Amino acid sequence: MMSDSALSCEALLKDAAALIGGETPRLDAELLLSHVTGSSRTSFRAWPDREVGVVEVARFCALVDQRCEGHPVAHLLGEQEFWSLPLKVTPFTLIPRPDTECLVEAALLLDLPESAKVLDLGTGTGAIALALASERPGWQVAACDAVTEAVDLATENATRLGLPVTVARSDWFADLPAGSFDLIISNPPYIAGNDVHLAEGDVRFEPESALVAGDDGLDDIRRITAGAPARLSAGGWLILEHGYEQGEAVQRLFSNAGLTDVETRQDYGRRDRLTIG
Ligand code: GLN
Question: Which of 63, 59, 33, 66 is nearest to 48 (CA)?
Fold first, then answer.
């Protein structure tokens, strides 16, 4: 997208949305223009003729070009909201998805002790751990990730938000110090290596290590379910996100590991999304 003159925000948004295409072109364009101008999205609607200066137009056009190449809006903004928390994101971790908020909801409905010990495995940006810490100040929330950049990012997000989450580097349970938890929760990688969706859209710009788990997408869920019983306190819970066609297979893995009260629940799009036990 090119322009070397000042333009009204409505004209800019219209042109950009037509170029961006995809599922949410207008929203994407508004988020990018808001980022560049520092003005709210509602101000664009209230004042569509407002002129955007040449320098801001140039910066906006450059971002629109990157969006057209497929770069996720969250990467261009450097931020993504999860559970109403503004989280810094980088290309080293998965961009938090709204569906993962279902895991947070499920956790908050559990009858856990006042100072429950909680572990978010493969925390990435820290999204799940930080959401839980923001809702339950009494819980002792720990998080881990095998990727050093994710450990640093989750730590930075915790500091920025002033939330007491401790983050450690660990390949699932392998490098964690001894100890057990009342709740273990995770959004692990669960996509099959040959899934065609990996070659399409925003997901191309996210790390494969956060998405892909072997030939059937279940390699990491196998490791987590196998390791969880030894790390759960008596009466503790495990909550895992998974693909919408993996509910039965994941329930079997929970049961094989000796977990009881196993149940698969759906996301906001009414597709199987998490299993709890
Ligand atoms: N739900 C994500 C997607 O479909 C994948 C998240 C994950 O693998 N944990 O892009």
Answer: 33
List, in order, residues 6 or more apart from 118 with CB less than 8 Å away.
107, 112, 129, 132, 139, 140, 141, 142, 181, 182, 183, 184, 185
Domain boundaries, the chain: 7-69, 83-276
**Tens-digit pLDDT profile for residues 208-255:** 999 999 999 999 999 999 999 999 999 999 999 999 999 999 999 999
Query: What architecture (CATH level 2) is domain 83-276?
Result: 3-Layer(aba) Sandwich (3.40)
- Residue 124 marked in a binding site: yes
Q: 53 by DSSP, 3-state: which?
A: coil
List the residue whose alpha carbon is closest to atom 10 of ligand 1.
Answer: 203
Both structure tokens of 46: 């209230």
Domain formed by 7-69, architecture:
Orthogonal Bundle (1.10)
Whole-complex ipTM: 0.93
Best of 205, 241, 245, 273 for a ligand 1 pocket test (most atoms within 8 Å of beta carbon): 241
> What DSSP string describes 182-211?
EEEEE----B-TT-GGGGSGGGGGS-GGGT
State residue 115's pLDDT score. Answer: 97
Ligand 1: which residue has its CA nearest to atom 5?
Answer: 211
